[in-house]
Amino acid sequence: MKKVLEGMPMTLAEFFTFDVEPQQPRVFYQAKELPNLGNDQIKLLLVGTAHERRDIAILKEHYEPGADTGPDMLTHEGQEGGVIIAGSIELTVNNETRVLGPGDSYYFDSKLPHRFRNIGQQVCEIVSASSPPTF
Prior knowledge:
Blueprint: H1 2-5, H2 12-16, E1 42-47, E2 57-63, E3 79-86, E4 89-93, E5 96-100, E6 105-109, E7 114-117, E8 124-131
Antiparallel strand pairs: 1-2, 2-8, 3-6, 3-8, 4-5, 4-7
């Protein structure tokens, strides 16, 4: 989906919230208000969808046990970073792989091939940010 939208002047967030009533920009959001841009295995909950011009994308990510962004490494413009809140995640960036747990963090150039996999037995929660927003 992300690849398809690269050729269109629309972000992933705009695509998934296209028919939602326009909202006034706000400061606070409740958990139940965050749209899921992912799926059942990998939830990508986007903060701040009501802002017309977001310079960063802030996500609360949930990876179910066994969830994987896929065998094809991800690449896109910008930079991203995050902090693991609960569980663990195996993160591969370029040719380097690490298993990160609660309190661990990452930051990298998103043009580098990368992949996220939950190899643990519990849900992994991450709070992340990327700029420019690709969601």
